[in-house]
Design a protein that fits this description.
With 161 residues, the protein is mostly helical. It has helices spanning 2-71, 79-96, 99-121, 132-145, 148-155. This is Secreted protein.
């Protein structure tokens, strides 16, 4: 009788241990799959962001160039078009960017609006010119979106093999 109880206890412990092991293995597999999906999603968005940031910078430079041409009394007549297109790309970038990039884009946008107001109202009293803040903000945005930490954020969640 004692042998039967020991056998029953051993079988019960073995069954519980097997169940726990299978549960842990399944949980680990689910975690790996989730990380792989998250990594694939980030890599996909990273590719989209490259083109988006390129187009955004081109449009911001276009808006700035139009303001600079007005400042030099060589109005190219494209201010409204360039500003409208830049707004479109600012909104696009804000939809898929992180907080840091979104903040940098907002700074450039604010600087461009301030410079535009100063140029169109001819109220510039700064020695550096009304577009000095624009140059600084654009430089910060360019360095932020081309920084290794932004590109590394996608590789920070590489799937576990």
């Amino acid at each position: 009788m004692e042998a039967a109880l020991v056998g029953l206890a051993g079988t019960t412990v073995g069954a519980v241990t097997g169940f726990a092991g299978a549960w842990l293995a399944q949980r680990g597999q689910v975690r790996i799959q989730q990380e792989q999906r998250a990594h694939a999603e980030q890599v996909r968005w990273l590719d989209d962001k490259k083109g988006l940031y390129r187009d955004l910078l081109i449009k911001l430079y276009g808006w700035h160039d139009s303001l600079a041409s007005i400042l030099k009394d060589e109005d190219d007549g494209k201010l409204f078009e360039n500003r409208s297109t830049a707004y479109k790309w600012i909104v696009e970038a804000s939809l898929i960017s992180g907080d840091e990039v979104r903040s940098a884009v907002s700074d450039v946008h604010r600087a461009l609006l301030h410079a535009q107001t100063a140029i169109l109202d001819d109220s510039s009293t700064a020695e550096e010119g009304p577009d000095q803040d624009v140059q600084i903000s654009k430089g910060e945005l360019v360095s932020m979106i081309s920084s290794p930490s932004l590109r590394a954020s996608a590789s920070a969640t590489k799937p576990v093999a």
